[in-house]
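Researcher: Next entry in the queue.
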Amino acid sequence: MSQSTITLYDIQSTIPQPWAPNIWRVRFILNYKRLPYRTVWIEFSDIETTLRRIGAQPTSYKSDGRQVYTLPVIIDPLRSINAPAVLSNPTVIAEYLEATYPARPVFPEGSRALQSLFVHYIQDGFVKPLLPILVPLTHQRLPERSQAHFSRGGAPSPTSPTALAGPQSEQAWNAVKEQFNFLAAILDKNTSDGNGVVAMGRDVSYADFALCSVL
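Model: Structure for this entry, 215 residues:
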């Protein structure tokens, strides 16, 4: 690969295609902006060690002050091979890519505030009802070593997240359906007045990538 190629760190699984929503959000931007990049696959149990080694910033802190390292992370050697940009957090990465590679923008002028609200809804309202359904499925698609790490915050465990069944499953799916219906009604407003089908009407934007990454 060229020395100017961006490196994207992604979570390894037992399926051939990428699956993690937050990482897909960044992958969509890289693809949309037509930026050359390569993927480095990491197991859950190796994320913190790998990110500390490359100098990535933690994405949050636990109540006891311990640092939390999560993906996505990118390394961009554009400015200096000796001191490449190492960025974590999908929003930080998106803003960096937009500022550094302005062609094919994902934040149309004057849209950042509204897009931020849309993305907040996707994360806080749209995704939460999906978690009880998606987490057990995610666990099944991880390599064995990552399954143990994923089950209980990094500690090996014989247990795994349990798929919902019966009334619990029905209740969870009803909550998901309610959010899908709400979002469909919002997006249909653009269709009904002929202004397009995406969040910004006719212009593909970061808000669309936040939604499509979950789907």
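Model: Residues 112-214 form a domain with the Glutathione S-transferase Yfyf (Class Pi); Chain A, domain 2 fold (CATH 1.20.1050.10).
Researcher: Noted, moving on.
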